Amino acid sequence: MNRLLFTIMPKKKTPTILITNDDGISAPGIRALVEAVKELGKIVVVAPDKPQSGMGHAITIGQPLRLTKSKEFGDIEAYTCSGTPVDCVKLAVDKVLHQKPDICLSGINHGANHSINVIYSGTMSAALEASIESIPSIGFSLMDYSIEANFEPSKKYIKQIVTEVLAGKIKDKHLCLNVNIPAVDASLIRGIKVCRQAYAKYEEDFIDRKDPHGKSYFWLTGAFVNFDKSKDTDVWALKHNYVSVVPVQFDLTNHLLKKQLEKNIRW
Amino acid sequence: MNRLLFTIMPKKKTPTILITNDDGISAPGIRALVEAVKELGKIVVVAPDKPQSGMGHAITIGQPLRLTKSKEFGDIEAYTCSGTPVDCVKLAVDKVLHQKPDICLSGINHGANHSINVIYSGTMSAALEASIESIPSIGFSLMDYSIEANFEPSKKYIKQIVTEVLAGKIKDKHLCLNVNIPAVDASLIRGIKVCRQAYAKYEEDFIDRKDPHGKSYFWLTGAFVNFDKSKDTDVWALKHNYVSVVPVQFDLTNHLLKKQLEKNIRW
Q1: Which of A260, B1, B102, B259 shows its CA 20 to 30 Å from the CA of A100?
Q2: B91 has a chain A CB within 8 A of its CB
Q3: What is the pTM of this model?
């Protein structure tokens, strides 16, 4: 090798991988995520100290936050945070890493985060928060809510997608991917499919009961309904045993309606 | 008048207007919103029983919810809800109204919800939740955080925009508008401007202190920075004393990045 070339070639920097989730630091899903990517860089975990499912993009502004060192992952640097998944990302960058990581991974969530669920999801909101800060990010979810879910088949796809993103093969200033993995045997997964978010959602219902003191309380429940029958959605892909990848963004502007308003409304 | 025509003309139905917010039912902002629109339909208020700022699209799934009748607005039907702004909308539709209202209004928020703040905002998440259910919705925010904020100049614009939406002049299956009002004297407001969401955000910082027991705690703070210098944004409009209207939607798919992935990545 040319000696000059050798001396000016920079040593490849080990990437820093920030990992969080919304099921809490002790959930099996985050352990599976750490295992899937630990060879790809220096891992730092900052995850909620309790389950934070359904927290969406909530942040804690009315009270203080705590960070506590955790031995949950042995020698891997890890902290629990008393706040939401989005708080975890903010605190990790500002008070743990003191700089932006090379990538932020969130999950593996116990349960699907496809279609409209991305908006309610703490897992995906943590990833979206990182992308707002121009940190490439990926949220991973397995379509199995149970604590005994089998995360093994997910690892191969996680490693593959994270490797591609770390290699810089996907160009976007605010790169954020929503990856859902079907809960089937590895041999049945047909590959990875790029999708759009389906218009599918829970048709809400509330259980209406009386507490021991005779007062009413309500508890959210509901049935999942897919209103979106085309084949380019995440719901379609998952139903057909593909790993779904939806690129996600945080500009909520409805540009079509903006044009209609500019054309038709005299304000 | 032709008698036949007279008999077949349907009586115009009084619209039902659901009102919520994220500052809690006792905030002056929601009182101003009720006053601004009370002549336009039958008002029903379902609002959080405590401040819920920064709750984003959080929902309560791990514990029960309570609804309590409130006399906050005299004869107007009103309830406090123990959950988040999004919970308020869900419970209102399912357990108070037992049907969809004609419109859902959220606010008036004490403080701006322009640019990226729409994602963290309980006010806007309540409106977005209604639009997911195909209920036309509008979130209103005044750029003044103080409890003594002057909501009077806002009322004229709120009444005007709500009247237009109730008249069906804006067509969208999932209509949702994010309206911000500059905190200036009424005579200085230059009108209403349709905008897109600016890429402007808080540069986070955390106050790092010790509690009385010597343990560290962190408290979120930060300075607002606008990275988006073009003139079609909400931040520009508000700076120039326009009422900003950003049409908002819940499809988070990054369609541009989706095309890039489909073209360049072999998965």
Answers
A1: B259
A2: yes
A3: 0.94
